[in-house]
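Propose amino acids for all 204 sites.
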């Protein structure tokens, strides 16, 4: 791919539930069919420290997680307090944070980097919203997600098993790629996507 325009890299993680459900190939296919190019991939079993550092973990971020939880509960702060033991949204965010860490360390994950024109925005569009129940039809989380906030809270998990994680901004993509692949990230994308004519290219 000739790197012109808004070609970017983004980070995508297939979470343990996506791996355990055998969805890896289907998820890769979604991005490949959109014309995006895979430039790095590996499977690991994340440590607790690695999982924690996947997220910003700042007070602002934690409070935002708490606010999202309040919205998921229809704005009913009493329901949030009942489920999380507090109505302090910062503290709710901390509970969710540790639940996310526990989920990411519950099995192997697939770490990937994708390349393409405005790839961050496009991947987020393909992935869909955080909650499968309200994500747009045709997105990964709508079509393949089976968890709900009610089920997550009822089973004590506090966070959703929603198959996949994707960077939500340029800065987050840069931070997450550095975190999972190191400061010396190797972009292996110096190849051209091949159509049928490529089968007759003697160079390979």
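Proposal:
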């Amino acid at each position: 791919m000739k790197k012109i325009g808004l070609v970017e890299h983004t980070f995508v993680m297939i979470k343990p539930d996506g791996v355990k459900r055998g969805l890896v190939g289907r998820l890769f296919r979604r991005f490949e069919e959109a014309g995006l190019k895979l430039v790095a991939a590996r499977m690991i079993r994340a440590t607790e420290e690695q999982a924690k550092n996947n997220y910003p973990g700042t007070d602002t971020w934690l409070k935002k997680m708490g606010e999202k939880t309040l919205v998921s509960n229809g704005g009913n702060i009493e329901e949030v307090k009942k489920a999380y033991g507090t109505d302090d949204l910062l503290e709710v965010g901390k509970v969710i944070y540790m639940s996310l860490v526990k989920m990411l360390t519950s099995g192997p994950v697939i770490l990937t980097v994708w390349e393409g024109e405005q790839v961050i925005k496009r991947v987020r569009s393909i992935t869909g919203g955080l909650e499968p129940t309200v994500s747009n039809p045709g997105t990964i989380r709508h079509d393949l997600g089976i968890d709900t906030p009610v089920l997550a809270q009822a089973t004590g998990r506090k966070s959703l098993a929603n198959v996949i994680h994707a960077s939500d901004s340029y800065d987050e993509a840069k931070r997450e790629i550095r975190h999972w692949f190191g400061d010396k990230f190797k972009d292996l994308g110096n190849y051209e996507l091949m159509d049928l004519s490529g089968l007759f290219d003697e160079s390979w």
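The beta strands are 7-14, 37-44, 109-117, 164-166. DSSP finds ten helices and four strands in the chain.
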